[in-house]
């Protein structure tokens, strides 16, 4: 009977929202629809989203993932990943006579446009983001002469600008909100006239997933974040959980990667997933936990999400043409 108390104390806090954001949903469906519409192979420049399972599943269906445009045979179809590409990549594709489908998330495109606009007005742009990340490479490519990367608060000291009265900060969409605000505060101390972006660059999905994991963090002994190691937003969820007071937090691609030892002395497990993670992977984690006595699942709801994006325009055009030719037949 003593055991019952311990068993009853075991519970799971399940974050909501978690998993797919609108940009990922659209990008993954775009690859699937392109495969149906044009047939395999469809080349995709960079992982369509940073998730191992998604990439492997699409590979099985006939997608070929490449890192550079010159790996795509001339005349083929190439899709650009949700993280966005620099304008030079569009040019390279045109030179190779590739048909392109751009699956860049509209919220990333929004940041690209902000960069173009501020560069045109001759601002120095301080882009807060992680060095080497695909999205940062794409955004920087819009105005390389005007953009300086600021990779976290510790980078602020070394930032230099031409004219401190014409400086704006922009950011990657998947950063930690709190860390970014710390970076911005330090930048503002250094450049009091620093202009802020017209609207949040850290997207709604990143923000909501962080709010939810924060809410569960204080109560959780362990937080399991489902996501891949190269997924910026997923990694941030681990950091935010720890920052909110979770005793322990780990990022796993699959339930089988969970270490039994993590459960020692644990009664409350928080579960969430990054914006590139299909729900089936979370279900497998919940199943794994329930087999170990964590059957009681409580939802921690931070926000309601209803946003969706229409498919990339090149694909919509061809799908429409197909539909009308079917009607004509
Ligand atoms: O979190 P990052 O940017 O690494 O990407 P992801 O593929 O794991 O999640 C979806 C986010 C994007 C496509 C970047 S806007
Ligand atoms: Fe778009 Fe945000 Fe998802 Fe990135 S994380 S694809 S910006 S909705």
Secondary-structure blueprint:
Layout lengths: L1 H8 L1 E6 L5 H17 L3 E4 L6 H10 L1 E4 L10 E4 L6 H9 L3 E4 L3 H15 L3 E5 L5 H7 L6 E4 L16 E5 L5 H14 L13 H14 L4 E5 L5 H12 L4 E5 L15 E6 L5 H12 L5 E6 L11 H16 L1
Parallel strand pairs: 1-11, 1-12, 2-3, 2-4, 4-5, 6-7, 6-8, 9-10, 9-11
Helix pairs in contact: 5-6, 8-9
This protein binds ligand 10G and iron/sulfur cluster.
Count of DSSP H/I helices = 11
CATH arch. level architecture of the largest domain: 3-Layer(aba) Sandwich
Biggest sheet features: 5 strands, parallel
Number of domains: 3
Assembly level:
single chain
Beta content? 15-25%
Strand order of the largest sheet: 10-9-11-1-12
Quote the average pLDDT.
Answer: 96
CATH class descriptor of the largest domain: Alpha Beta
Ligands, deduplicated: ligand 10G, iron/sulfur cluster
- Give the structural class: alpha/beta
Unreliable parts:
1-7
Number of strands: 12
Q: How many whole angstroms does the radius of gyration measure? A: 22 Å
The residue fraction in helices comes out at 40-55%
**What is the overall silhouette?**
flat
> According to CATH, what is the topology of the largest domain?
Cobalt-precorrin-4 Transmethylase, domain 1
Euclidean distance between termini CA atoms: 72 Å
């Amino acid at each position: 009977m003593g055991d019952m108390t311990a068993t009853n104390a075991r519970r799971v806090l399940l974050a909501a929202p978690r998993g797919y954001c609108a940009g990922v949903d659209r990008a993954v469906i775009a690859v699937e629809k392109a495969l149906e519409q044009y047939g395999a192979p469809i080349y995709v420049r960079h992982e369509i989203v940073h998730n191992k399972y998604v990439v492997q599943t699409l590979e099985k269906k006939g997608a070929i993932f490449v890192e550079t445009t010159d790996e795509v045979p001339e005349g083929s179809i190439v899709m650009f990943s949700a993280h966005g590409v620099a304008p030079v990549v569009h040019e390279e594709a045109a030179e190779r006579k590739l048909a392109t489908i751009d699956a860049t998330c509209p919220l990333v495109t929004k940041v690209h446009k902000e960069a173009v606009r501020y560069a045109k007005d001759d601002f120095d742009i301080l882009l807060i983001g992680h060095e080497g990340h695909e999205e940062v490479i794409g955004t920087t490519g819009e105005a390389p002469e005007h953009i300086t990367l600021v990779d976290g608060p510790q980078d602020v000291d070394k930032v230099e600008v031409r004219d401190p009265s014409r400086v704006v900060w922009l950011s990657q969409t998947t950063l930690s909100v709190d860390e970014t605000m710390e970076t911005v505060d330090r930048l503002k101390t250094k450049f009091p006239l620093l202009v802020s972006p017209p609207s949040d660059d850290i997207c709604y999905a990143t923000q909501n997933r962080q709010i939810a994991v924060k809410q569960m963090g204080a109560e959780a002994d362990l937080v399991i974040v489902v996501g891949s190691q190269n997924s910026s937003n997923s990694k941030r969820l681990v950091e935010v959980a720890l920052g909110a007071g979770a005793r322990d937090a780990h990022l796993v691609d699959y339930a089988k990667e969970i270490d039994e030892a993590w459960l020692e002395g644990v009664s409350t497990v928080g579960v969430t997933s990054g914006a590139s993670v299909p729900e089936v992977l979370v279900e497998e984690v919940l199943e794994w936990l329930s087999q170990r006595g964590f059957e009681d699942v409580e939802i921690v709801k931070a926000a309601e999400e209803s946003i969706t994006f229409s498919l990339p325009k090149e694909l919509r055009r061809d799908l429409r043409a197909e539909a009308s030719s079917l009607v004509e037949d």
